[in-house]
Design a protein that fits this description.
The complex is a heterodimer of chains A (about 325) and B (about 450). Chain A is of the alpha/beta class. Helix content of chain A is about 50%, strand content about 15%. Chain A is built from 13 helices and 8 strands. By secondary structure, chain B is α/β, with parallel strands linked by helices.
Chain lengths: ~325, ~450
């Protein structure tokens, strides 16, 4: 991770950091950890969208620690940071379909980008394509969102900005056939990375989920082990419904990891913690702005630090990153 | 809509209903449970707190102690407060004195402004207005194309200037609409984060120039705790006059609706309930509160049933039922009517108590299709006299419908049971039957 990325992350999360750390400091003060403080912590965590269960579990752990060691002031911050890191570093469970190792994949490495409407799939595909292209990969975008008006045009503009190839389907075309043609083209052109943009769909719509499963089946006819990775887009402002989204999509075609967008606002995106805790699905990327390079690989420790870290740790981290 | 919240409240209410008089402690304990339910539904922490304080104030004391059934009283108070919070009855959109009346759509990225603009236009066109759409989202790639497509689908004109500047385009659109006799202008704007100062300023400039009659904040019903921050920022910075709640066809509990309403102080006007342009409804706080409190959306259900059921058919069926001549032909007709009313899942959610009863029991639309296939594989005679269906006929029917003999047996058993049930009910008065008779169909005592 370069310093540049860390700065970007820190800047993007500045709003989150200011409010979370600020309110925890205020709650804890210099006094001891009593019930009132724990309740304040609970409010802070719930307000960050961690959900009732996860927030209560975290508070319980802090309370247990407080009875063993004397926690005061910034100790609470440190303890919370450690407990939260432990939570989001829990190993992925059988619910997550781990991505294939790009080194071991011969031919195109295929990534599906899926999710509910309005989460930022198309924009994120543009950012990912740009990243791949910058890393020197021959990249192809398959524009298979044939449902939403002008979605294909939108992703085409991103392809142009990222300077990568695109295979597009006509509006209203069968998305599975677009993916079929696209993957054939990827094989013919010797593409190294393939990004498949799919239409936004609510996870509760059985017919649309069936359509997604069809795309998955058809893709396997062209490239047997595709997709090598399935990224589920999660809108950072989403509340507890994110858990339901992650569950239904992973039951459908499987999810390798999350990509969380819109974290440059005041939303904390805390639902990623229960998603990790209950479903074991990790976060791979986070979107922290509207520019083409506003995409940061997710590293739990780094994000926890950027959110909860005190200034000293952050400076230390930054200087390590600089080296 | 609000499905999960409703289920959880169901559980809580069954506890209260089963007890006698409520003490102050009972109310507190119950409300603690409601608090958890609200928080899990994404109602903002502070909004939930102030809401519950109001309920507690009203519940503990006179109203509860004097009531005969305290449980029901608490339910009523919760319900009333919820309706109050969601904001009175439906209020139509304002019209301005000069034409065109400008409606401005604002909100975060991905909340559904463009689609909602098209839906709103169509809604107004159906009511005799002449709306026009203006493409003022010049930020997102291809947003103008998208609005133009939406306009095509909705059969509405779209004013767009490629490479323009939003404030100017908005002004030109208003002039164009005035000159060409469009009475309403729906302005689509770029999605923006509420902390993006320059973009919020741009919205203000658009507002100053075109003087919208309504500024509608488009909010995603899946939004979490942050809903209060964006709603508050848009309210303070711009001044919004209404909210449109989108993606309510998912399984989000929609607590954001309560948060946005409480923080902004403006009513929720409409709800987006599907991807199609006519899947758009006026927002009814009362109905919504009914749903939340597990009372079911009886009004919508009855309306749907009335649309699908032909009154003449219903009378005929009622007569048959009374005379116990209900055969498999009628059964098939019932199946068709049920199908006309739309997906079963949506329907079940509207029936009071059905949500709870159906829990863990997925409604299989496939099962219905199978049943239909079995009946269609019977001869008309067999349908009228199911008693003649014996072994070899059963085999033939199973083969013809692509099912197993067991499936045919099951259907025939169900039919017999239903007939028995009808016999027992024959002497009683029946109140509205789903998919069957209109409400209040009288059954004279036999």
């Amino acid at each position: 991770m370069t310093m540049n990325l860390f700065r970007k992350l820190r800047h993007g999360l500045a709003k989150t950091r200011d409010s979370v750390v600020g309110s925890i400091r205020e709650a804890v003060g210099s006094g001891r950890l009593d019930d009132a403080v724990i309740e304040e912590l609970e409010e802070i965590l719930i307000t960050a969208d961690l959900g009732v269960d996860t927030s209560l579990a975290l508070c319980e752990r802090i309370r247990a620690r407080a009875s063993r060691e004397a926690l005061a002031g910034d100790d609470v911050l440190r303890a919370l940071r450690e407990e939260l890191s432990a939570l989001i570093e829990t190993p992925a469970t059988e619910n997550a379909s781990p991505p294939a190792d790009p080194e071991r994949v011969e031919g195109p490495y295929v990534t599906f980008v899926i999710g509910v409407n309005g989460t930022g799939k198309t924009t994120s595909i543009g950012k990912l394509a740009y990243r791949y292209a910058q890393a020197g990969h021959n990249t192809l975008i398959i524009a298979a969102d044939t449902f939403r008006s002008a979605a294909v045009e939108q992703v085409a503009i991103w392809a142009q900005r990222a300077d990568v190839d695109i295979v597009r389907g006509a509006t209203g075309a069968d998305p599975a056939s677009v993916v079929y043609d696209g993957l054939r083209a990827a094989l013919a052109r010797g593409s190294e990375r393939v990004l498949v943009d799919t239409a936004g769909r609510l996870h509760t719509k059985t017919n649309l989920m069936a359509e997604l499963e069809k795309i998955d089946r058809v893709a396997k006819k062209v490239i047997a082990d595709a997709p090598h990775e399935v990224l589920l887009m999660l809108d950072g402002t989403t509340g507890q419904n994110g858990l339901s989204q992650a569950r239904r999509f992973s039951e459908s075609i499987g999810v390798s990891a999350l990509m969380v967008t819109k974290l440059d606002g005041t939303a904390k995106g805390g639902v990623l913690v229960p998603i990790r805790r209950e479903l074991g699905i990790p976060v791979r990327w986070i979107g922290v702005g509207e520019a083409i390079d506003d995409l940061v690989p997710f590293e739990p420790a780094l994000v926890v630090d950027a959110v909860f870290g005190d200034d000293e740790t952050l400076r230390l981290r930054e200087s390590i990153a600089e080296e | 809509m609000f499905g999960e919240l409703q289920e959880k409240l169901d559980g809580f209410f069954s506890k209260i209903k089963s007890r006698g008089k409520l003490t102050e402690d009972d109310v507190r304990a119950a409300l603690r449970e409601v608090r958890r339910i609200l928080l899990e539904a994404d109602v903002n922490f502070r909004v939930a707190r102030s809401f519950l304080n109001r309920v507690e104030e009203r519940a503990v004391g006179r109203e509860v102690t004097k009531s005969v059934t305290p449980g029901q009283q608490v339910i009523k108070i919760l319900h009333d407060e919820l309706v109050g919070l969601l904001g009175g009855s439906f209020r139509p959109l304002k019209r301005s004195k000069q034409t065109p009346t400008v409606l401005m759509m604002v909100g975060l990225q991905g909340s559904g402004k463009t689609t909602t603009g098209g839906k709103l236009g169509r809604y107004l066109a159906k009511r005799g207005m002449r709306p026009m759409l203006a493409a003022c989202d010049l930020q997102r790639p291809a947003a103008v194309d998208q609005l133009e497509r939406v306009g095509e689908q909705a059969d509405l004109p779209v004013f767009a200037v490629r490479g323009g500047e939003p404030v100017m385009v908005a002004e030109q659109a208003a002039e164009h609409a005035r000159a060409h006799g469009y009475d309403t202008l729906i302005v689509d704007t770029a999605g923006r984060l509420h902390i993006d100062e320059p973009l919020m300023e741009e919205l203000n400039r658009i507002r100053e120039r075109i003087r919208p009659a309504e500024i509608l904040f488009v909010a995603d019903s899946m939004t979490g705790q942050d809903a209060v921050n964006s709603a508050q920022a848009f309210t303070e910075r711009l001044g919004i006059s209404g909210v449109v709640l989108t993606k309510l066809d998912g399984d989000a509990r929609g607590g954001a609706a309560l948060s946005v309403r409480e923080v902004s102080g403006v009513p929720i006007r409409f709800a987006g309930v599907g991807e199609k342009l006519d899947e758009f409804e006026e927002f009814h706080p009362g109905r919504m509160a009914d749903r939340i409190l597990g009372m079911g959306d009886v009004v919508s259900f009855v309306e749907k049933a009335q649309e699908a059921v032909d009154a003449g058919d219903a009378l005929k069926l009622a007569k048959k039922l009374k005379e116990q001549q209900f055969d498999l032909e009628d059964f098939l007709a019932q199946l068709h009517q049920l199908k006309k009313m739309g997906p079963l899942e949506g329907l079940m959610k509207m029936i009071p108590g059905a949500n709870k009863a159906m829990q863990g029991m997925e409604i299989q639309e496939d099962e219905l299709k199978r049943t239909e296939a079995i009946i269609l594989s019977m001869t008309p005679e067999e349908r009228r006299k199911p008693n003649i269906i014996r072994g070899s006929r059963r085999k033939r029917i199973a083969a013809g419908s692509g099912t197993r003999v067991q499936d045919v047996n099951r259907l025939l058993n169900q039919y017999q049971q239903m007939k028995k049930m009808m016999k027992q009910m024959g002497g009683r008065k029946m109140k509205g039957m789903p998919g069957g008779m209109p409400k209040g169909m009288p059954f004279p005592p036999s």
